[in-house]
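RETRY 2/3 - previous attempt timed out on the joint model. Re-submitting the same 584-residue input unchanged.
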Amino acid sequence: MAIKTIAIISPGDMGSGIGKVLVQEGYQVLTCLEGRSPLTKELALKSGFQDTPNIASLLSQTDCLISIVPPESALSVAQEIAEQIQSANSGLIYVDCNAIAPQTALKVAEIIEGAGARFVDGGIIGSPPERKGLTRVYISGPDTSELLELHGQNLEFRDLGDKIGTASALKMCYASQTKGTTALWLHTIITAQSLGVLDALRNEWTLSHPPLWGRMEDNLPTVPHRAGRWISEMKEIALTMDGIGLAPDVFEGAAAMYELVDAVFNQKGYSEGPPILELLTMIENHLHHQNE
Amino acid sequence: MAIKTIAIISPGDMGSGIGKVLVQEGYQVLTCLEGRSPLTKELALKSGFQDTPNIASLLSQTDCLISIVPPESALSVAQEIAEQIQSANSGLIYVDCNAIAPQTALKVAEIIEGAGARFVDGGIIGSPPERKGLTRVYISGPDTSELLELHGQNLEFRDLGDKIGTASALKMCYASQTKGTTALWLHTIITAQSLGVLDALRNEWTLSHPPLWGRMEDNLPTVPHRAGRWISEMKEIALTMDGIGLAPDVFEGAAAMYELVDAVFNQKGYSEGPPILELLTMIENHLHHQNE
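RETRY 2/3 succeeded.
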């Protein structure tokens, strides 16, 4: 049975971007905006989403539901949806596209399959699909075939086989590198700033790692308004690694770093962070205040 | 008083490389090879070092002593030297060039100054000085002026001011980036290999981070025979970061990774590691065996 209607829970930057592409390709895209912020509502309606009054109504109309939420909400959202799945929705495909450990994906699968729907494990890599080649939705599990027929000019679904957990594993490994590197950078330069060797370190890098400081200057100002969302993602990566017998410390430490950044900036309502030196000074002042 | 005689404890790859440069520049370079391996003895004598029968004899002849040892030995070596310092050596300059936290450098300083000698904090960045521009010896503390007059065509001393701990801080920050990145890479690809997504990850990197896998292929085979030396260096970095109020977890996790690599390879007598895929298989087998 080909998918014609897709529900997206919940349409943030990534969800609304993916929904917009699917609308452009002629699919009906539903969501439930009850209780969401005016900004999210505006974004979803502008992207061509159809609002439904509640989850039961949404489930009665859709072939497929895609969950794109903060990782810490993946299980509670699945539970909420599962409670509303009726025998009439038994053909439903539930796609969890969240940045969660394979272990967590298996828990979500158990909840959804227990309610009588089908489950697909997913992992999104890239940024919202504003143009071709930016976004890849990796999927795995026994029920991926209908999703692979979904298409969008700027959206690619890639099958990773029939095992639930594989798509989540790939997302965890990929994010461990990108967001792990950013956490490592922050550790290094916060320490250098606090110990008065940042200038010397930059001079040394100019000799031995010339592109490094420039990459930090480009990347780090984007972190303050995203750090809050990365805390539980780092914890899911720690769980993934713990599951194969590695010490989870590196990513528990990365989670702690993003908690720190979030504590410094989120309360100040930053949407884009300040330049790197100002960012360092603010974090240093926060640490100094904490240590007093 | 200009330095004419320099003692190096102990002449491994870096120590013998630095000593060789100083010999070429006309300095007398001493060491004490008692109890060292035949390989170390051969290396030191070929580099032009003069052997002395014991530490007391070495101290009676030298203006300056440079300690280049594994980080976990920095304090015990300082203690051993301090016990042999006589009032006759009160002009001695002790340079700790080890990869240790500023806190540890301050402890070494206390031991050495307590014995009546002068202390210089040092940190070596780069590889052994086989050609110009490879090696920088950063130094800090109130007694750096005589060292700054030392010169070697392939060896540069750089002053970081009069505070003991600054040179160590720079070394810690620099190494947190280089060896921290290597530890992060290992976390990512060991996890990917164990969860069956390494091929998918490499394909994704080909699109989104094209140089990454090639850099890993170049770098990681050099890790097995160095991992053992990096364990305590990572712990010193953790201590450094803990000292400014950051969670030490990331570098405790990096230490655990190098413990794992060392456990897999050291017992097998690897001097150069195998290619990356063989390396991953060996680590995966070890983890699998541990988890059984």
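Chain B is about 55% helix and 15% strand. Closing ticket.
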